[in-house]
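Structure ticket #2291
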Amino acid sequence: KIPNILSENNYKANIPSTLIFSYGVIKLDNTVSEEEFFEGVQSPCKIEAFKRISIKKNDNIIQTRIVELKFVAPKIPSIISIFNMIFEVEPS
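Resolution: structure written out below.
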C-alpha cells in the first residue's frame, strides 16, 4: 500500500476550478431556449451550464442575446455549432 503523504501530514490537495472550467459567451437569438440549445449544440468540449444574461429596464426584466456557457475545459473553444450554425465563443 502506498503511504498517503498528504493525509499523514494533515495536508489537503485540490485542483483549482480554473484548471477544470472556463466560461465563454455567445450571441444567440433570445427565442432559442436552453433545451433547444442543448439539443442542437456541438462543441469540442462538454458544456456544463447555460445562462442567458438578462437586464432590468424600467422595472422589466429583459432577456438579452448574450448567453454565458460553462465549459468543462481549462480553455474555451473558439467556436461551437448549434444546428450546424457556427457561433464564435468569446471569453466571459
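Closing remark: Residues 31 and 65 are 9 Å apart (CA to CA).
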